[in-house]
Design brief:
Elements lengths: L2 H5 L7 H15 L8 H15 L1 H14 L2 H13 L11 E7 L1 H6 L1 E12 L13 E4 L8 E4 L2 E4 L8 E4 L10 E12 L8 E4 L15 E7 L5 E3 L2 E9 L8 E5 L5 E5 L8 E5 L14 E8 L1
Parallel strand pairs: 1-9, 11-15
Antiparallel strand pairs: 2-7, 3-6, 4-5, 8-9, 10-11, 12-13, 14-15
Helix pairs in contact: 2-3, 3-4
The chain binds zinc ion (ZN) (2 copies).
The site of one zinc ion has 8 residues, from loops.
Length: 301
């Protein structure tokens, strides 16, 4: 229960303003006029009696301050100087590449990424303002956050578009409201993912301003495989084998992305470059349709 809110006055309201607010409320909600508002009228009376007595008000303010979040206190300081509360802003989305093997993409997997992002400073809740800070209207843009440059307005360089400057800013983040920290996220690679697909991690981006949410993290999938070529769902592998081992009935070992090797029987004598098709041993799509595996054999003399 916030007495200031009950009376509808600002935290720094003068005794006159408090009296005036009480009189208006008393008129509207007096039980003689309105039976159903009896409980509310009691609250209004208690609020008035507390705030009009300097000693009681001081004690109440102290208690209220302890119960108010760091963020609310900081925003209130800005409000007191500029006359408005800054809007909260979502943090920036981040984009990172993530390298996976064909096997990880085929089977689906769980991976972990380490990266650096702007983490909200917990000392000041991302505002740069603490108990000891003093807020001053920016001397360059006079609170607007923008300055004129020829015919357009650009963000003020002195206050970085905030409209105010902080004296004695938060020492943990130097008043920036964030610190660069290494972050760890674990995420799922869905089966059949394609190169260039995105994986979105909600809230994985930079922290927002003035209580704004974190941005998102977008992971762009890249295949790290150099030994295999992927074309759609089909996988290609090139092998160099001596001609003497490529007679009909010979068995050759060919690396495959899911298992160590495939044993392949040569269907007929191979003397020149030949491609063998192994059905349903390729990559797959998100629906689970599996492509073919192609072995390009280059005979060596
Ligand atoms: Zn400024
Ligand atoms: Zn801080």
């Amino acid at each position: 229960m916030d007495f200031y809110k009950i009376l509808g006055v600002a935290r720094d309201a003068t005794p006159e303003e408090i009296k005036k607010a009480f009189r208006e409320k008393a008129k509207r909600f007096h039980p003689d006029r309105n039976k159903s508002s009896q409980e509310f009228f009691k609250k209004v009376t208690l609020a008035y009696e507390t705030l009009i007595d300097p000693e009681k008000r001081k004690k109440y303010d102290l208690q209220l301050n302890r119960n108010t979040s760091i963020l609310d206190k900081a925003l209130f300081k800005i409000y007191n100087t500029l006359g408005f509360t800054p809007v909260s802003k979502k943090g920036k989305d981040l984009y990172k590449k993530v390298f996976i093997s064909l096997k990880e993409g085929f089977l689906g997997s769980v991976k972990t990424i380490f990266y650096t992002r702007k983490e909200r400073c917990s000392y000041c809740e991302g505002t740069g303002i603490t108990e000891n800070s003093v807020i001053r209207e920016c001397s360059l843009c006079h609170g607007e956050g923008l300055v004129k440059k020829r015919v357009i307005k650009i963000p003020c360089s002195r206050c970085k578009g905030k409209g105010f400057q902080i004296l004695n800013p938060c020492t943990n983040c130097s008043g920036k409201g964030y610190i660069h920290l290494e972050t760890k996220k674990t995420f799922k690679i869905p089966e059949g993912i394609k190169e260039g697909d995105y994986i979105r991690i909600k809230g994985g981006g930079d922290c927002g301003r003035n209580g704004g949410d974190y941005g998102d993290l977008y992971l762009i999938v890249k295949f790290q495989e150099e030994d295999f070529q992927l074309k759609g769902k089909d996988v290609y592998k090139t092998v160099y084998i001596p001609k003497k081992d490529l007679k009909k009935g010979d068995v050759i070992s060919v690396p495959h992305f899911l298992e160590d090797t495939l044993k392949i029987e040569i269907p007929e004598d191979i003397n020149s470059e030949t491609t063998l098709k192994i059905r349903n041993r390729g990559y797959k799509d998100r629906k689970g349709n599996v492509g073919n595996f192609y072995i390009k054999i280059i005979p060596l003399d």
